[in-house]
Every structure is written in structure tokens, then in C-alpha cells.
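User: Show me a protein chain along with its predicted structure.
Assistant: Here is one chain, sequence first, then C-alpha cells.
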Amino acid sequence: MGNWLVTLLLPLAAWSGWWVAMRKEVRDLRKSKSREAYFEGLSFLLNDQTGQAIDVFLSMAEIDQQTFDNQLTLGTLFRKRGELDRALHLHQQLLDYPNATPLQRQSVAYELAEDCIQAGMYEQAKHLLESLRDEHFRLKDVLNTLYRLYERTADWQGAIKARELWQNSGFGDCRQQIAHYYCEIAQRALAQNETQAAHAAVVSALQIDARCGRAYLMRAQLAEQQGEYVSAIHSYQSIAEQALDFLPEILPFLMKAYQHIDREDEYLAWLEQKEAEQPFVRLTLALVHILEKRAPDAALQLLEKRLQTSANPLLLADYLRLHQSDDIRALYQTLGNVLTPKTVYQCNQCGFRQQRVIWHCPACHAWSSFRPVLELKLEQR
């Protein structure tokens, strides 16, 4: 009886061992193929061969339907290829996958938010990113994506919160951007005739960034609306202290404020002091154009003095224009073409150019990056 049982069990044991070995071999083969496919897909991806990479990762998904990370990568590749419907569908399926770990679900939610942004589904993207922010998942990446989304949708309160959290998390100083967000809120309030709300937003902007020229400009404009011209003058002069490049832009407004209180002589004295402290070309020309109406000789002397240290063609052109000598005036007339200044505004981050002052670069999204550039233009007289 014992021999019969042993005879029966030996083949069964041998078959069981073979079956276990075969299963292990199949698993090892699958792992080996998966690794090979992964590196093949990665190679395609590094060489910008997105189509081939998608095919490889798709074959991996067919080998092992439970390969969660491969599916996640595949969805990201769909988005980069512009196949947003497929990316959204795949990432949504993964988000609903019941056996996903919390970390996997967060990773999928982040990729799904990126899909939604590209598809213009901004509210859905906000909801996903705000949840990830509250969970502190990849906080720096989430906040970086979130604040840009708030800017795109003009959600300035949301942008303020995102940048404050960025700052408080030690990722960098954002006071300049936050001040501009408050200025945007003030601009919106002014458009709705909500003067008090606009004033409060401007005050908040200056509390955040005491060097915000835009906030000083808005404060001056609000003061003028209320007939508070002395306050407006102080705000305009603050711009000169914080952003001297823009001083020529605000001089006409500053002069009008002085005229309202009959203090034009004080304006001229202040302008002469500023030009003496910082004699750059645009400021000198602005002062000359005022002096030539009051004291032409003083205007000419100023140009002569500046030309001794700066052989600028714009200063020279004004000097020739104002000179009383017949020979020099004749020379000016016979030039035919004279140099005239033309001001353009250029982003100091990316070089984007505009014909007027703007505060937010549409190309690189930098704030307060535009600076006036004085160009020389030949104009037929």
C-alpha cells in the first residue's frame, strides 16, 4: 500500500515542481521583457520619437495590465502628443482605479490637472491642484502650476494665496508679484467705480512692496480724482525715487498736478534738481523742452554742458535746433533728415517689445519687466 502511494505521489510532485518552475520562468520573462521595453521606450522618448515611445509603452500595458506607472506615463505621452481626449480618458481611469495607493492617486491627479489646463478645463484643473496643495503633494510644482493658472483666469485672490504660500514655504521672494496682484484688484475695482475698494487694494500693494511704481501711479491717479493734488504730487515723486526710468512718462501728469495748485515754479525747481542728480538723456530733453519756453539761453547752456560729457545725437539735434547762430541753424536746416526720439518698451527678461507701458509680459509672464528704450529715428522734415 505504501509503495503504491509513493508511486502515485512521485509524478504529482514532479509535475508540481515543473509547474512552479514554469510560472517563475514566465514571471521572470515578463519582467525581463518589461525592463527591455521600458528602456526601449525611454530611448525613443529621449530622442523625441514620441510616437514610437507610445507604441512601446502601450505594448508594456498589454503585457501587464497592472503596470500602473506605465499607464500613467502613457497618458502623459498622449498629452504631449496633443491627444488630449486619450490622455484625459486614461488618467481619469487611473484616478478611479480602486487599488491605487494614495501616492499613485496624487500623481495621477497632478497629470490629470495638466491635461485639463491644456484642454481649457480650468475649473477642473483648479479643483485638482487645490486638493494636491492642501495635501502638500509636490508642493513646489503644484504651486508653480497653480499660480500661473490663477493669473490666466484673473483669479487674483487665488494668486495672492498661492504666492504667499510659496513665499512662506521658502521657495522664493514673491512680493513684487503679489503687489501687482493687488494692483490688478484695484484696476478691476476702478472699472466698477468702487473707489474705496481700489484704494484699499493699492494700500495693500504698497504694504507688500514699497517699491511698486505701479501702485504709486494708481495712488496718484486716485488722489487726483478726489482733488487731492498735493497727495498726487507726492505719489508721482515717489515713482521718481523707485523707478527713475519711468520718470519722463509721468512728468506730464506731475506738471498738471502742480498747475492745479499754481506751483509751476516748484515743479521746474524739482525737475532741475532731479536732472542734476541723474542727467540721463530723456530727463534732460524733458527739462530742455520746458526751459526753452521760459529761458531759451538756459536751455542751450544745459545742452552744451551735457554734450561735454555725453556726445548723444539727440542732445546734439536739440542743440542745433535751439542755437541762434545763423550758420548753425542753417546747418540744422540743411541736414534734411534729423534725429527724433522714439520710445519703445522692452521686456528685460525675454526682449518682447511693446509700443506702450504694460506691467505683465505676455511672452514670458514676468511682472514689472518692461523698461523704456529710447531709439533714434530718421524723420523727413
